[in-house]
Design goal:
The protein is α/β, with parallel strands linked by helices and 290 residues long. It has 14 helices and eight strands. Strands 1, 2, 3, 4, 5, 6, 7 and 8 form an eight-stranded mixed β-sheet that branches. Bound molecules: S-adenosylmethionine. The site of S-adenosylmethionine (SAM) has 20 residues, from helix 3, helix 4 and strand 2.
């Protein structure tokens, strides 16, 4: 993704969190990322809820695919939006520290039982431990640990996601590229009816994915509001992010220059359903989320 020989590759100077993505349960994930004020799932929640509302076709239950879902982080927010104890605090609780991963999954299963609100949430992530946990905890109706950057979906994944109506993602693009979206849309029964709400760090260029979606007759709009994702882990990350956003012609003032990774949010809809500008359609949610 780099366009000059002396420039750091976009995203390659980001801190490496691989070890927290592959623990047997989410405690370390939330602990480490909380230290950096990771907050994009919480900020994305009002947008996801509103998109679910406005994209509803006939009152049926909805099928959502969360790409790079990790331990079911977005499901945890969707299922317990007004909870007095947010997910990070829930996992940081001293009592939870004494539980085995199996006991913690069981506690989560109780926490989220009966709170799915008619949503079928499917998950894709490269991490088998994260997907396994999210399934055991009742945070995913079904999930698959596969890396579509490097290969085609398994027959089980292809069949399982065929009826997806909405794709969501936070913190995923960059790890996944157009390749993953190509492989996902190829196995969907009606890709021309899909909606997508994808939060993307401003260091990354979303246009290759938006172009792919356009080839299915889907229209992508940037909602025009940016959202804090997390603080930079160190000076190198900050310098690289400033370099990357400037190279993309974006102004980091008040955003990356203030010490935070910021995301854009892209809403994609079938052309026939895209009469009202996305930012108008989601205006109340954007005020809540920003
Ligand atoms: C920053 S986390 C985001 C998790 C969650 N969506 C959130 O916002 O908290 C990135 C996730 O991408 C996953 N990931 C990395 N490379 C991937 C790939 N090629 N395919 C699918 N998932 C991948 C990691 O395992 C990790 O769970």
């Amino acid at each position: 993704m780099s366009d000059t020989p002396d420039a750091p590759l976009t995203g390659t100077t980001k801190a490496n969190f691989t070890d927290i993505y592959t623990q047997p349960d989410p405690r370390r994930y939330y602990k480490v990322l909380s230290r950096l004020d990771y907050q994009i799932p919480r900020r994305a929640l009002p947008v996801f809820r509103e998109v679910l509302e406005v994209s509803r076709r006939d009152g049926r239950s909805r099928t959502v695919l969360d790409v790079c879902c990790s331990y079911g982080v977005n499901s945890a927010h969707l299922f317990a939006p007004d909870d007095r104890q947010p997910a990070a605090a829930w996992y940081a609780d001293r009592e939870k520290g004494r539980l085995s991963p199996e006991e913690l999954a069981e506690a989560d299963r109780h926490r989220y039982a009966g709170r799915h609100g008619g949503l079928t949430v499917l998950g894709l992530d490269a991490s088998a431990p994260a997907i396994g946990y999210a399934r055991r905890a009742g945070l995913l109706t079904w999930g698959w640990a596969e890396d579509l950057e490097s290969g085609d979906p398994s027959p089980e994944l292809a069949a399982g996601i065929a009826d997806t109506e909405l794709i969501i993602s936070t913190g995923g693009v960059g790890y996944v590229t157009r390749r993953t979206f190509e492989r996902l849309l190829r196995v969907m029964r009606a890709p021309e009816n899909l909606w997508l709400a994808i939060f993307v760090l401003r260091v990354f260029d979303y246009s290759p994915i938006a172009d792919l979606l356009a080839s299915y007759g889907l229209v992508t709009e940037n909602l025009g509001t940016t959202f804090r994702q997390r603080r930079f882990a160190n000076d190198a990350e900050r310098a690289a992010a400033l370099h990357d956003v400037r190279r993309r012609g974006l102004d980091p003032a008040g955003k990356e220059a203030s010490g935070w990774f910021h995301t854009d949010c892209f809403l994609t809809r079938p052309a026939a359903e895209a009469e009202v500008p996305a930012a108008d359609l989601l205006a109340p949610a954007l005020r809540e989320a920003a």
